[in-house]
Specification:
The protein is an alpha/beta fold. The protein has a single domain, classed as Aldolase class I (TIM Barrel, Alpha-Beta Barrel), CATH 3.20.20. The chain has twelve helices and eleven strands. The chain has a seven-stranded mixed beta sheet with strand order 3-4-7-8-9-10-11. Strand 10, helix 8 and strand 11 form a beta-alpha-beta unit. Helix 2 packs parallel to helix 4 and helix 4 packs parallel to helix 5. It is globular and about 55 Å long.
Length: about 375
């Protein structure tokens, strides 16, 4: 298939900002604001109440992952910084401090938009030296957060990668992915395309408080089904698994059953980790919503951003038999990757039956905090 160049952006973005209404009192800020060069203007609109978009012209679209990283990809694209999903546990919150913004409300409400990403990317991947290695989308902030409904950067990004023979992976919580599934299916005819949906919480009340800006779990599962119906082998990221909140047998069984019924091919899971920035914001939420758990979390994450080895081993014994029972075998605790970059092999679990899952007798969970 020959790809025709296309961009969903308003043509004006190559020299000015994308179309939109500048709110009263929001003047075009100086280009050095937040330490970001190429800042065009800041925008507020009624349909995104409380959110300010800072539109910038990026010099590059591709980000190279440091060689020392254990991530199984070399290149990423992040057309947005900050995220209106407002997940209280988001590991990327601290990155807003690089812009002199706070990792709490500013991360949720001050969103940087690289409005010329598709055009810049098209120029980068057209260069003869481009290696055509896999590019990961959704590694820092979500490319299908609500802002994408306004700016439509992803169609141009997908097109640029596919036209230049570059495989891609997409990880998102956003149901706006469904808009681009036909385009991704076309891309899949020429390059490898991996789709992953992040769905961590299968309790509606909890999901609405801890991920207040995200689509519902039901809506995301429906998006998994839509992608599976188009022939994609969808991975669901069941992460973070949160101690005493989403790690009960009932919650895990409900989650895996729903994922299987949605047509996903595999599950990747990982225990909650709390980096600086996210840690303070999560603890503030916990103190308000579940104060009885705060002392335990403070103890568990006192010396590390990661859950203890004991807890992760306990979680592995609990969830792996269920993953096998629902035929969703994927990576084991991918939040703590054990393989080198490019090695997509995964370690399997020994247990493989529902009967074995039912017979597990883990230690009392209180001892793990």
């Amino acid at each position: 298939m020959r790809w025709s160049q296309q961009s969903a952006l308003d043509p004006a973005v190559t020299g000015t900002a994308a179309t939109g209404t500048v709110a009263a009192g929001i003047d075009a800020p100086p280009a050095e604001l937040f330490g970001v060069t190429g800042l065009v203007r800041s925008v507020q609109t009624p349909e995104f109440a409380g959110v300010t978009f800072h539109e910038v012209l990026a010099k590059s679209a591709l980000n190279k992952v440091p060689a020392a990283s254990s991530m199984p990809f070399t290149w990423t694209i992040n057309p947005y910084r900050g995220c209106s999903h407002a997940c209280v546990y988001c590991f990327a919150r601290n990155t807003h401090r690089y812009l002199d913004l706070d990792p709490g409300q500013d991360f949720d409400r001050q969103v940087i938009v690289k409005v010329n990403t598709p055009e810049v990317l098209a120029a980068e991947v057209a260069k003869p030296k481009w290696s055509r290695e896999l590019v990961a989308l959704g590694t820092n902030t979500d490319p299908y957060q609500r802002a994408e409904g306004r700016y439509s950067l992803m169609p141009g990004i997908i097109t640029a990668l596919a036209e230049h023979g570059t495989p891609m992976s997409v990880l998102t919580k956003g149901t706006l992915l469904r808009r681009d599934l036909p385009l991704l299916a076309r891309a899949k005819e020429d390059v490898d395309v991996e789709i992953s949906m992040s769905i961590a919480v299968y309790d509606d009340a909890l999901q609405q408080t801890i991920e207040p800006g995200t689509p519902t779990t039901t809506a995301r599962l429906a998006t998994v089904r839509s992608a599976a119906n188009l022939g994609f082998k969808v991975t669901v990221f069941l992460m973070p698994v949160m101690p005493k909140l989403t790690d009960s047998m009932d919650h895990l069984d409900t989650a895996l059953r729903a994922i299987r019924e949605a047509g996903a091919s595999r599950v990747v899971y990982g225990a909650l980790h709390l980096r600086p920035g996210a840690r303070e914001w999560f603890f503030a939420w916990l103190e308000h919503e579940h104060p009885e758990l705060l002392p335990r979390y403070r103890r568990m994450y006192a010396k590390s951003s990661y859950a203890s080895k004991e807890y992760r081993a306990w979680l592995s014994r609990r969830i792996n038999p269920l993953i096998d029972a629902y035929d969703l075998r994927g990576a084991t605790d991918d939040d703590y990757p054990m393989t080198k970059r490019g090695d997509r092999t995964r370690l399997g679990a020994a247990s493989s039956t529902a009967a074995q899952a039912a017979s597990l007798t883990p230690p009392p969970q209180e001892a793990l905090f």
